[in-house]
Amino acid sequence: MRRRLFKNLVTAPSTEPVSEEEPAVLDAAGAALRGAIARRLGRSLAIREVDSGSCNGCELEIHALNNAYYDVERFGLRFVASPRHADVLMVTGPVTKNMREALERTYHAVPNPKWVVAIGDCGRDGGCFAGSYAVVGGVAEVIPVDLHIPGCPPTPMAMLQGLLALLERADGRAVIS
Ligand code: SF4
């Protein structure tokens, strides 16, 4: 333990450097998102996140959206504590049998009109947990899904681009599958 503490004190953090292009890509996606939110909703897009059985890898990437680098509140996106305040229900993980009812109740608590976004390969079809005795399946097995963002886990940028595509489709400006 002492050795590990000492090692952590003398070694640099193992973060990866950001590519030179990424800040510009992020700013462009953010500006497009802010415009789409203003056209569609007026001010902001409120997201309620539900973990229906994930390994928490997807949550780490979702948390990154609020860190100092992505800082998505500046684009008009915010995570809310209550489904009654949400426009988007964002769901991670396969839906476990234990979480099925909670997910259904949360879905019904989000006011209409609403969008459901399934995050990650597990959200699509159960991913690496598919076939488990504890798993119902992907999110679409339980509630209607408007957008699936693939990846294990998807990056924060992929989530921003997915949300942008969702809003632009709602705007009649783009088509996503
Ligand atoms: S998609 Fe990958 S990171 Fe996300 S919950 Fe499933 S296993 Fe974990």
Keywords:
177 residues, alpha/beta, five-stranded parallel β-sheet, two-stranded antiparallel sheet, 6 helices, 38% helix, globular, binds iron/sulfur cluster
How is this structure best summarized?
The protein is α/β, with parallel strands linked by helices and 177 residues long. It contains six helices and seven strands. A five-stranded parallel beta sheet has the order 2-1-3-5-7, with helices on both faces.
Detailed description of the structure:
With 177 residues, the protein is an alpha/beta fold. Helix content is 38%, strand content 16%. It is built from six helices and seven strands. The protein has helices at 2-10, 22-41, 57-64, 100-109, 120-125, 156-170; strands at 45-51, 77-79, 88-92, 95-96, 115-119, 135-137, 147-149. It has a five-stranded parallel sheet with strand order 2-1-3-5-7, sandwiched between helices. Helix 2 (22-41) packs parallel to helix 6. The relative contact order is 0.16. The model has no long low-confidence stretch (mean pLDDT 92). Iron/sulfur cluster binds next to helix 3 and helix 5.
Which radius of gyration do the C-alpha atoms yield?
Answer: 18 Å
The N- to C-terminal Cα distance equals 50 Å
The backbone outline, from C-alpha atoms, is globular
Count of alpha and pi helical runs: 6
Low-confidence stretches: none
Bound molecules: iron/sulfur cluster
The description of the largest β-sheet is: 5 strands, parallel
β-sheet strand percentage: 15-25%
Helix content: 25-40%
Quaternary organisation of the protein chains:
single chain
